Amino acid sequence: MRTALIAMAAVLLAGLNGTCAAMSDADLERLITREIAPMVDEVGGAAIAVRMDGRTKFFNYGLAERANERPVTSDSLFNVASIRKVFEATLLAQAVKLGELALADRGAIAECW
Questions:
Q1: Sign (positive or negative) of CA dihedral 30, 31, 33, 34
Q2: What is the four-CA torsion angle of 56, 58, 81, 94, rounded to 10 degrees?
Q3: Closest by CA position to 73, among listed 45, 43, 38
Q4: Share of the chain above pLDDT 70, in %
Q5: Measured between alpha carbons, how far is 70 from 76 in angstroms, rounded to an integer?
Q6: Is the confidence at residue 24, as pLDDT, over 70?
Q7: Which of 7, 21, 63, 72 falls 20 to 30 Å from 46 in CA-CA distance?
Q8: Residue 58 contacts residue 49 (beta carbons within 8 Å)
Q9: Nearest to 74 by CA among 39, 42, 50, 41
Q10: Is the CB of residue 72 less than 8 Å from the CB of residue 46?
Q11: What is residue 108's predicted lDDT score, i.e. its pLDDT?
């Protein structure tokens, strides 16, 4: 379920790409709360970061540790498990798009890991 929450957050935030500039901080927080907060009961907690207009906004929900009732903060660390491959693929795709790497550069790509 944690993977599903991370994937859902990624889809939600990808959909915000063109609309963030016209959105106030309060509107953005309402949108994220509406979409993410209901899922937090199942997974315990979530931290969402949104990069908008040169600023990074953090939205934290639920508990990082249920046993001690420690809330999620902007400094909470999460185990991303097998979703790591998605992050690596995204970074690789961004590097290719920026012209920093080419998919044919097998040696350069192997050095990243």
A1: positive
A2: -20
A3: 45
A4: 71
A5: 10
A6: yes
A7: 21
A8: yes
A9: 50
A10: yes
A11: 54
